[in-house]
Amino acid sequence: SHINLFQLCQQLVNNFRVTPAQKHQILFDYQGEQENIYLDENIVRQILTHLLSNAVKYSTDGGLINLNVKGSCDQVILQVCDRGIGIPPEDRSSLFECFHRATNVGTLPGTGLGLAIVKKYVEIHQGEICFESELNVGTIFTITLPIVNC
Ligand code: ATP
Fold first, then answer.
1. 60-85: average pLDDT
2. C-alpha closest to that of 77 among 2, 13, 146, 125
3. C-alpha 89 to ligand 1 mean position (Å)
4. Are 74 and 147 in contact (CB under 8 A)?
5. Whose CA is nearest to atom 17 of ligand 1?
6. 65 Cβ closer than 6 Å to some ligand 1 atom
7. Cα–Cα distance for residue pair 53/140, rounded to 1 Å
8. Could you tell me the pLDDT band of residue 84, with boundaries at 50, 70 and 90?
């Protein structure tokens, strides 16, 4: 159905601002004339919740997190940026595999399932997911979801 993507993202970010991200600053930027978009609300909610949780968890000292969203007639781009621990090069090719956790997670908790789930949701939506990362600098996840019925 049609969802208000701006409102949904704002709501999710606000939930994160209360807790668990007290040390972090989360900036939300929305670009696009169109706010009511034909997308599955549950899928967008699941994807962003996983990515924002990771951004918080893997930037242990706090810091800036960005959620940048671009909505247009034929696609939506969701981008989550953090300034955290980054992903070591040797872990990048298996990052979306179930139970895979990078070698630099230390004692940070997790199952290694979140990103595998995110990837499934993206595939259900016939979208794409990619990331860029630099060790101890940060990570950017970008998801593109096509809009079929506009
Ligand atoms: P859970 O899903 O239970 O939260 P998780 O965080 O370990 O566990 P995923 O979300 O699947 O699982 O992530 C897989 C691995 O990718 C993580 O263990 C971590 O090594 C790495 N990772 C994911 N997101 C980030 C990020 N934003 N910064 C650095 N590493 C990340």
1. 94
2. 146
3. 14
4. yes
5. 101
6. no
7. 13
8. very high
Q: How far apart are the first and last CA of the chain?
A: 11
CA of 114 to the centre of ligand 1 (A): 7
**41-57 helix and 5-18 helix, angle to the nearest 10 degrees:** 30
Residue 85 CB–ligand 1 contact under 6 Å: yes
Residue nearest to atom 1 of ligand 1 (CA): 110
Nearest-CA residue for ligand 1 atom 8 is: 110
The pTM score is: 0.96
Length of the chain: 150
Is the ipTM above a cut-off of 0.85?
yes
pLDDT tens digit string along 93-121? 999 999 999 999 999 999 999 999 999 99
- For residue 47 and ligand 1, the question of a CB distance below 6 A is answered with no
